[in-house]
Amino acid sequence: MTDDGTTTAGAADTLGYEQARDELIEVVRRLEAGGTTLEESLALWERGEELAKVCRHWLEGARARLDAALAGPAGTAEDGGDTVADNG
């Protein structure tokens, strides 16, 4: 099972955010529609969990990039602002 999980996770990791999100939406739609066997439902659920992890990974990466971008200029501006305030 580890080999299968690794293979599936590896394939999921290559998905972009939008691809993973769109597939996740489809998985949720199919689960909500019903009409699948228990085995199919479990497979869909597992795929949905994998896709959610991929989306979460992309979003956490985007958040880290935004935080880094905001922290860099803000720290410089604050230092400069303090200096100007002390001189003014």
What do you see in this structure?
This protein is mostly helical and 88 residues long. It contains three helices and no strands. α2 crosses α3. The longest helix has 50 residues. It is elongated, with a radius of gyration of 22 Å.
What percent of residues adopt helix (DSSP H or I)?
over 70%
Number of strands: 0
Written as H for each helix and E for each strand, in order along the chain, the element string is: HHH
Amount of beta strand: under 5%
Instruction: Give the overall shape, derived from the CA principal axes.
Output: elongated
Major sheet summary line: none
Q: Unreliable runs, pLDDT <50, ≥5 residues? A: 1-8, 77-88
What's the end-to-end separation, in Å?
A: 68 Å
Q: What's the total helix number?
A: 3
Radius of gyration equals 22 Å
Going by helix content, strand content and strand pairing, the class is: mainly alpha
Mean pLDDT: 80
Key descriptive features of the protein:
single chain; 88 residues; mainly alpha; 3 helices; 0% strand; elongated; disordered N terminus; disordered C terminus
In short:
The chain has 88 residues and is mainly alpha-helical. It has helices at residues 2-13, 17-33, 38-87.
Question: What does the secondary structure layout of this molecule look like, with pairings?
Answer:
Elements lengths: L1 H12 L3 H17 L4 H50 L1
Helix pairs in contact: 2-3
